């Protein structure tokens, strides 16, 4: 399993840092236009963590290397619909992170009663459309843009159990990485202090 963690308002800075790291082309594929830093910052600022689901995969330095946004409809008549978007840092692409995030998104969507998952992507975004097709989605091309949709079965007991297990696994992994990150930071501070003491001793001996 790939540890995936649900993100909240406290992660806005990390989400922004992740999106800012994307190359110009990757931003273009993610948003459908060459988003500027200001537009990316505005997008992150407007994320609705109460209505939507934002998922992330962290590396050992607690940097987000992949982020998915599952946007649920605010309109009552479309409450059974959701849209999926994902971004993966170029250096970690090809490891299946996008597909894993899509699987988790489907699990969460089913749990919330969603019956249709939509993906809006540029036709040239081959990786995203491949994820959709592999999941069984219907893809419709309209010039430079494509629409994919996937019908989801109703949630059952297995959906609930899988959701709980996935959330627990992602949270435990994040806390372990956070603890390791803090420890290495502490160790670096101790080593810096030791170097300062040694330098002080050398100066005193001279």
TrEMBL record:
Source species, domain of life:
Bacteria
Which UniProt keywords are listed? Transferase
Report if keyword Transferase is assigned.
Answer: yes
A GO MF term: acyltransferase activity, transferring groups other than amino-acyl groups
What sequence ranges are listed for the domain N-acetyltransferase? Answer: 15-155
* InterPro entries, alphabetized: Acyl_CoA_acyltransferase, GNAT_dom
Family annotation (PROSITE patterns): GNAT
Q: Does the keyword Transferase apply?
A: yes
Q: What is this protein called?
A: GNAT family N-acetyltransferase
What is the source species? Answer: Melaminivora suipulveris
């Amino acid at each position: 399993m790939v540890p995936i963690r649900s993100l909240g308002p406290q992660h806005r800075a990390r989400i922004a840092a992740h999106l800012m790291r994307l190359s110009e082309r990757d931003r273009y594929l993610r948003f459908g236009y060459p988003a500027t830093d200001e537009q990316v910052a505005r997008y992150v600022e407007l994320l609705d963590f109460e209505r939507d689901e934002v998922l992330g995969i962290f590396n050992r330095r607690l940097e987000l290397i992949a982020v998915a946004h599952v946007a649920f409809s605010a309109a009552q008549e479309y409450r059974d619909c959701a849209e999926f978007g994902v971004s993966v840092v170029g250096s970690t692409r090809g490891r299946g992170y996008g597909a894993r995030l899509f699987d988790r998104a489907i699990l969460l969507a089913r749990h919330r009663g969603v019956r249709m998952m939509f993906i809006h992507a540029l036709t040239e975004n081959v990786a995203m459309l491949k994820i959709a097709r592999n999941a069984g989605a219907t893809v419709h091309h309209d010039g430079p843009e494509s629409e994919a949709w996937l019908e989801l079965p109703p949630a059952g007991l297995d959906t609930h159990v899988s959701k709980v297990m996935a959330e627990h696994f992602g949270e435990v992994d994040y806390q372990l990485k956070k603890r390791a990150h803090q420890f290495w930071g502490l160790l670096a501070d101790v080593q810096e202090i030791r170097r300062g003491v040694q330098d002080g001793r050398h100066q005193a001996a001279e």
